[in-house]
Amino acid sequence: MSDQHIEVFREEAAELLASLETALLELEESPQDQELVAQVFRAMHTIKGSGAMFGFDEVAEFTHEVETVFDLVRKGELPVTGNLVSQSLSARDYIRSLLEEDTEGEVDRAQGQRLMEIFRSMAQESSPKAAEQHDETPDPLEPSADAEQDLAGEATYRIRLRLAEDISLSGTRPEGLLRELSELGPCKVVAQPELIPLLDTLVPELCYVHWDIILNTSRGINAIKDVFIFVEDDAEINIDVIDDNDSVDSDPSYKRIGEILVERGDISQEELDSILAPAKPIGQKLVDMHKVTTGSVQAALHEQEMVREVRSQRKTKESTSSVRVPADRLDELVNRVGELVTVQARLSQAANMRNDNELLAIAEEVERLTAELRDTSLNMRMLPIGTTFSKFKRLVRDLSNELNKKVDLKTTGAETEIDKTVIEKLNDPLVHLIRNSLDHGIESPETRQAANKPATGTVLLAAAHSGDSVELIIKDDGKGLDRDAIFTKGVERGLITPDAQLSDTEVFNLIFAPGFSTAQQVTGISGRGVGMDVVKRAIDNLRGNICIDSQPGEGSTITIRIPLTLAIVESLLVSVDEDNYALPLSIVEECVELSQEDIARAHGRNLINVREQIVPYIPLREEFDVPSEPPPLQQVVITSVNGTQVGLVVDQVIGQHQSVIKSLGRVYRDVQGISGATILGDGSVALILDINHLAYRAEQAG
Amino acid sequence: MAEVNNIEMNQYLTFMLKDEVFGLAIGQVREVLDFTNITKVPRTPEYMRGVINLRGSVVPVVDLHLKFGLEQTEKTVNTCIIIVEINMDGEITVLGALADSVQEVVELEPEQIEPAPKIGTKLNTEFIKGMGKRDEEFIILLDIDKVFSNEELMQVHRAEAPHQEIS
Amino acid sequence: MLNIAQEPAGEKTLIMHIEGELTIETVAELRESLLEAFAAPWKNIQIEADNLSGIDFFGLQLLCAAHRTAASKDKVFSWQSERPGFLDEAMLTAGFTRHCGCSLCPPGQKCMWI
Predict the structure, then answer these.
(1) CATH placement of domain A568-701
(2) What's the CATH architecture for A3-133?
């Protein structure tokens, strides 16, 4: 097996393990859900099979034990218990460690042995009695295993099998599948060789044949599906139960072919009826079809093909087809698109300067296409944050057990899409914040009950789009923050003076200041010197902001806002003297003029009156030590940051700009007030302003 | 950086700062540009002149005059920007350095290089790899990685920032 | 491993003797030889496979393609004498057993699998 195949197996196994974890957690909540049981079983079965195929024998051996147990659960001979779920979660972790042994290292094989023992003994505990106590209502979509055994007995199935052409690449041999099928019961296999190409175009290692199979078995439809478990993603498999009454109706496609042939006069209605009667073996059918000429059957086959396609399109399948792409290829694409955006801006500018209408029209067209391309390519990197959320469910479950607290994690907005890199970078900060909530926020069940709160605490994780940002909320109903304690600590650490006048929110947000958090007790869970300031820095690096609010006794709410994309920001260009600066458009509310009189009216304070509201402003000229004199009429760009309004005074407001963000590099990493640079249409560099920081300083200056 | 062969290791790009001739190992020089608009980044030391647009990338430019205690580089027709690659904390960073003019590439055998003098130059001798002698002229060979060492740059940042964030 | 030996039998007939395994690993070789044979002026190409030690689905598929290719060029591709009996099992599993030729078999030509 080539390395590439092994890699693909590892990736797919990792995905399976991830969704397996979610399924197990959900199963704990709804132990009667047969669909979940089936999902867990299938996952185990797949990992076992693929593991064996790719040489992961230990994985296969281990997974077999778990699969056996879940097979029993599936048949109703074992109930789903909290213990089963816990053991299964540990098993899942163990499997993962086996798969990652090459890269991650340690595998606790003693643990593996223990788990195998546990599952083996669980399997032995199963009893047929449990089958009787099993849920009375069978799932109408998927007949449960014992229902088949008791009721259906034997059944005859028509299976139409169309494998992917490159089936051999994954190591599957068609005859292997067919043999497995024939082990289920008497079956007749007919190969349809019509699509085998002539020798000169034939690639001999591809599979061009599809099959019609009639199988009589008492093992049930699940057993048939299991045969195709490893190939079902790339194959078309239709399984129909041939019932005496409605063989004709259950398979409109066959009817169709017959109808087509009848319409064309190729065969008579009687012949059609005799063909469709279930008693006839397929061979006979083909004999009859052979009565017609090659051409009409081919044509009819094509029509049938079309009908089949239309039918499958009409099926509302939830699975969307997707393509695996290495992440760095996507990054490259986004980079190219960024460069294209820059050049396109130059094109537009140049076109505007010339008097050529055609050029202008073309430039506009290019601008429109570039914008669409930009949106599409940035969208490709977006993933729903739901996967991150499910990891946290596991975290909360484990943590609450460790801490002897009862905590429920609720999530909303799992479908909210965020740039892939942002999700990765958010992971650690979110983990830390959740750990904090559980450790310091949520009280023990006794304390809670004493305070008339439900014994089980709740942590809410919510994500939603808001403008061009994403808003994440982590809210707990714990004991909230202690304002006075934080204030005192702030004074201790020299962050504030003892007489500082601060609002509650300002006090709470002190916990994000560097140097604040060194927890007195380092619990095993949080406070390993990983402070809130690290969280804040991570959020800052994502050009986002974070703030916390709290009600004593009721809980705390942390709000994080992050821009949707890291690469391009829609901005407002402004200028001071000869330099241009860019501001993220999302925070800009409006622009007003600032005259000499307005300045005079404020008596030396940087304040301006906007429709009866007093808004503080930052004169960029002063901030940036620009030596020249300001023009008589300046502009104030009113921005809104964290709910407060701050104005930025500039010479001119130039206009909108799609700024491809360029990092200033390591050299300028610590510069404050500037978050990057962008290249304008004329090739000059404009600096991107970091309003958060400027606003903070304005507040400080008072 | 890939292995450079022997010849390259002895080649230096010479340039002028005021009246003195300096040299940079050619292996670290990417290209030489004409002087172009530099966008100043606020609240940075004087010798950090700002950034330029180099074919779509934003590259910082340092004024060597100021770094070495001379007066600010005056722009003339000969002024150019030498784009170098330096090793900063294990990462390759691209920077530009202002020079009054660029001369030529000279080859110096190891015998032609003397160790840096302890006195006699205004420069911080840490920056100097050695003194090359060609004909009667001395070429001050710069250790470019040291000139732009991150610590130096970072230190000056912190000193300059007037209102420290309360932290 | 697959050994292919070509034996002309008269002006218009070529016999291909194959022995060894005709499986996914070796089908490409046989395809090459067959393509050559079809490009040459032979009218009948016969296959003798009594000493084949194994055959899999891809081998069967290849023979099917060869038969069809011959028909398209007005040549005949067939077994040299009887189809070897040990093929029956492989054919059955893979579903190649038939009662009559498939729709792409021209009248007059005998299907390989009957």
Answers:
(1) 2.40.50.180
(2) Up-down Bundle (1.20)
Q: To the nearest whole angstrom, how far is the Cα of B53 from the nearest Cα of chain A?
A: 6
Enter the ipTM: 0.90
Residues of C in contact with A213 (CB under 8 A): 95
Average pLDDT of the residues in A571-595: 88
Encoded tokens for A692 = 């958060």
Share of chain C above pLDDT 90, in %: 6
Per residue in A625-645, pLDDT tens? 888 888 889 999 998 876 678
Please, do chains A and C touch (3+ CB pairs < 8 Å)?
yes
Domain boundaries, chain A: 3-133, 145-312, 327-380, 383-563, 568-701
Q: A517 to chain B, minimum CA–CA distance in Å?
A: 11
Superfamily of domain A383-563: Histidine kinase-like ATPase, C-terminal domain (3.30.565.10)
> For residue A693, which of B52, B43, B60, B62 has the smallest C-alpha distance?
B43
Residues in A touching C4 (Cβ below 8 Å) = none
Of the candidates A559, A612, A561, which has an alpha carbon nearest to the alpha carbon of residue A586? A561
Average pLDDT, chain C: 84
More confident residue, A137 or C94: C94
Task: List, for residues A295-334, the tens digit of each pLDDT value.
Answer: 445 555 555 554 454 444 444 333 456 777 887 788 788 7
Alpha helices in A77-227 (DSSP H): 82-99, 101-104, 109-125, 129-133, 145-147, 174-182, 221-227
Query: Does B5 reside within a domain?
Result: no
The answer to whether the CB atoms of A174 and C57 lie below 8 A apart is yes
Note down the domain range covering C9.
2-94
Residue B28 DSSP label: G
Interface size, chain A vs chain B, as Cβ–Cβ contacts under 8 Å = 89
Q: Are B53 and A623 inside 8 Å of each other by CB?
A: no
For the segment A90-103, what is each residue's pLDDT rounded down to a tens digit?
Answer: 999 999 888 888 77
Question: Residue A413 above 70 pLDDT?
Answer: yes
Tokens, residue A284: 């006979």
Q: 3-class SS at C52? A: strand
In a domain, C101, yes or no: no
Q: Which of B55, B58, B81, B93 to mutate: most A Cβ within 10 Å?
A: B58
Task: With residue A309 as reference, give the H or E element that holds it.
Answer: helix A294-314
Label the pairing between strands A469-476 and A457-466: antiparallel
The CATH number covering residue B112 comes to 2.40.50.180
| Number of domains composing chain B | 1
